[in-house]
Amino acid sequence: MIRSHGEETFPHECCGALIGRDDRVTAAVPLPNTTEDGPRRRFLVRPSDYRMAEQQASELGGELLGFYHSHPDHPARPSQFDLDHAWPNFAYVIVSVMAGTSRLMTVWYLHEDRSRFDEGTLNGDENSDSDTAPSVHG
Fold it and tell me: What pTM did the predictor assign?
């Protein structure tokens, strides 16, 4: 689901919400990429999208665990822009999409002092051909 969304939107960034329970993602909900900086290298989750993701989580009997986005033709590592716009207590999954094909997928958590991201553990998506929902652990 996350990988295919990244491939579908290439060469632009995709973004979406991670919904689940107990660190297990049960749904990845695509969100519109409405950044004014252009979707090729940025994504933006607007407050209205956040509220919609919270509502979706409630309807699905889960909670909002975090967000995902793609990095077209770039590594699956957070950028300075990602750091500047991150919210605490959420998982941030990044999938690298190289030449239209998804590659490495990673998960990151904002450090307590907001100075950097710490890499977490992503389980259930070790195989790049897999499109299953991952587990995320900080």
Answer: 0.87
